[in-house]
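Dear Dr. L.,

I hope this message finds you well. Following up on our conversation about the binding site, I have prepared a predicted three-dimensional model of the protein together with WQD. For your records, I am including the exact sequence and ligand specification that went into the calculation, followed by the structure tokens. Please feel free to forward this to your student if that is useful.
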Amino acid sequence: MKILVTGGTGYIGSHTVVELQAKGFEVIIVDNLSNSTIDVLDNIAKISGKKPLFEKFDLTDPVITSAFFKLHSDISAVIHFAAFKAVGESVENPLKYYHNNLLSLVNILQGMVENNIRDIVFSSSCTVYGQPEQLPAREDTPVQKAVSPYGNTKQICEEIITDTSLTANIRGVLLRYFNPIGAHETAFIGELPLGVPNCLMPYITQTAIGKRPFLRVWGDDYETPDGTAIRDYIHVVDLAKAHVVAVERLTGGICRQNVEIFNLGTGNGLSVLEVIKSFERTSGVKLNYEIKERRAGDIVKVWADTEFANRELGWKAEKSLDEMTESAWKWELALANRK
Ligand code: NAD
Ligand code: WQD
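The resulting structure of the complex is given below.
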């Protein structure tokens, strides 16, 4: 089966391509390389032994996207990762985010409908839950008004897929990721943040390697056991494997509804200080960090109820926090050796 992976040279996409290839799927990537580089294709091939097919274009272009689908009407399913994802930038430039994230999805669905391609897996986010009143967050926990245009694009995209499925022959699996971190064990692929990272894990590894002077821990006065905020960090390889299961579920016709939603997390809430301690343990590097004021817009704590995903998908995140921080560090070292 041929699977279209949009955003397949990106962080989560590249790990998913490797897992799809391991299961015998043929992969075609579409990416405009706005946040990734072409050498990822060779690095995927170093792991899997097979370079995926690749087309470079912008999915917001309706003409090119339509022509692509016409040419590749033998695609069995789409995994749609391609999007902009920087929360802060989306506040500064909302139209950039609405334009990219919404138009891409509309063009893809149009191409699917026109060519009788039924199945789509969509990258959603735990950001749709905001700060839930009850934890852990379940798939039926009410979605809250998004605090950023980025978060809003995820909510609207979920609705676009759901609405489309009501009248067109479209079926979707919406995967709500918690906090993906880590890298492939080979260190051939990983996260490549452009500029100064916002997210915790790349900031930790860049500090440890000397690119940043110190990590700022945003607040230690939260109502949590050690005062720092809590998230559900999940190894990117575990996350990638869930996409293969989702594709098999869709193409195997075993979905219970036209659109299904699953949380992808470990179910464990971990504090910022716990992540730092794990990093120090697995890398042997003492991290330079300072406690600062709370970061605006941060929620206090969130973690996933994974019961539904575990039961329905027969999938469970297996990798430990130490495996996450160890692989992230190995990746940062590999990046340093490349230059
Ligand atoms: P990424 O930036 O590494 O990958 C996205 C890829 O999409 C990039 O390679 C980029 O070049 C490409 N792209 C963007 N717009 C495009 C367009 N218009 N046409 C063609 N290609 C385009 O991001 P990621 O971390 O791998 O995230 C993948 C998806 O998962 C995104 O939809 C993101 O919103 C979602 N997500 C990510 C996280 C996270 O913490 N990384 C958490 C929840 C959800
Ligand atoms: C994690 C924790 C910070 C950096 C973001 C998006 C969300 C989703 C996942 C896509 C928080 C703390 C961080 C630093 C710190 N992405 N931190 N110092 O904010 O949970 O979620 O990524 O959908 O939409 O908002 O992730 O990695 O930025 O932060 O203390 O330099 O680490 O305060 O508690 P977040 P994060």
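In brief: The longest strand covers residues 119-125.

With kind regards,
A. P.
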